[in-house]
Every structure is written in structure tokens, then in C-alpha cells.
Specification:
The two termini are about 40 Å apart. The chain has a domain of about 70 residues. It is mainly beta and about 270 residues long. A hairpin with a 4-residue loop joins strand 20 and strand 21. The chain has 3 helices and 21 strands.
Amino acid sequence: MNFNYVLTTGDGQGGGFLSFLEKNRKSNVINYHTYLSPEYAVAINQDGSIRHQASALDPNVVTGDHSSLLSFNSQTLLEGEEEVIEDAGLLRYNLASGEYLVDTVSGQDVFHFCPELDVSNQDIVNYDKRDFATGILIYSTSSFNYIPIDALRSKVDSAYSNASTEGLLFDNYDVFLNGQKLKLYEYPNSTVTGNLFAIPKKDRTIEVYSDEPDLFGSGFIEGKCDLYLNGMEQITDDILELNTGVSEMIQTGVQAFIDNRIVSERNIYNL
């Protein structure tokens, strides 16, 4: 098992209540009903039918395009670009790239997902607010004989000028292969097909990689930490955050047991 903790450390200036709502937000998959007004675009499936499944967002947190980081059933998705086409007087969204788009302009305030994702209310959607930046994608419909990290690095460096080496790429960006987060120099050896993309890391965070599930001694802001297990993001329900204060308050490796005692008129037996 590979445990990757991303700990938000803060900037020492405090923050408003809204800042605590910008992390690890859970989203409900909903069946929304578009009013089909011509001035509003609606999402469509591959067959041209209207898509009625979406995931709700808070417009106070996600304020527009490329300001969110989203995972769908632990798989991190790349936000894409939409194109709007007119069909019989109706404006329709078509996802031109990426795996989801943000709709904050039609009054629905939802995430729309690519048609390949079979969305239902059983799915788990988590999202964070992030600073505006477009992710960089290398997409292949054919198999990669190797993971083209250097091609991604070159494309990122051309756009942002801060990934001149592979090390700098991973210092400044989170790199994902089909939604699974990669670690520097530890890439799959198998032939793969799909999306390789990079998203800028958040400021004021530290990362810890470990083979052990528990992490001690690292400062963090409660409720604003992420955990990736083998590259897949985990929901906050799977994380227990504790502030020890002093090291003796929490002990590990201590076996718990129940001392059952049977009391009779003559003897007390310890079982």
C-alpha cells in the first residue's frame, strides 16, 4: 500500500469561514430538470439526448471554470472545455475535452460529466476549490508503450515555464494517469491507454509518502487534508484527524481487552 498525505498548513493569517468550506466538499448526484429555455445550454449524451444526471456544486466555492479539483469514486477527473451548439433553437453543451465541466451560468450550479461515465446517485463525488489554472493533458486513444512523462513535462513547461525537469514537474504539479495519482519515478510498467494530465499543486501544503497508514508529528489544518491510497483519493470519512497535544495522550500498539468477572458467593473468577 502507498499512502500519500497532502496536508494543508495555512499561511499564518487565519481565514474566513468560507475558506473552511472550500475543501473536501461532498456533492450529491441529482436528476435535474432543465427548463429548456433557449438562452440556457443543456448537456447532451453521445446519442444527442439530453443528459439528466449531474452533480450539485456550491457556487460560492466553485466560482467558474478551472477553479475546482474533483474526484469521482476516488478517480481524479480533468476539467475540460465545453462547446455550445445550437440545435432546433436549443443550446446544447458538448464536452470538447476533459472529463467534466462546470455549469454556473444556467442557474443549475452543477458539474456535468463526460458521457462515458455512468452517473448515478450511488456515486461519490468530492471536490475542492483551487486557484484558477488550466490542467495540461496528453490524451491517447491508442496504447502507450511507455508512460510519456517527458512529453507531458515539455507541454507543461511550454505553458507555464516551471517544469524544465521531471523533478520540477512533480514538485509543482500533481500528475495523474487515468485519474490515478503518480509518484515521481514510480510509474506503471504495463501498456496503458487514456489520459495523462497534470494539475498545479495547491499552495501552502506539504506532501508525505509512506508505506504506513498512520502519520504522526506533522502540522496541519483540521478538515483540510487529502489522502491518496495507491493514487486514488479517499473520502474524509476514511481519515481520523487527531491533535495529540502531548505525545502521551494517544498510545498505539496497545491491545484492548475486556476483563469479565463472574461473582459468586464464594469466589471471584477472572476470565
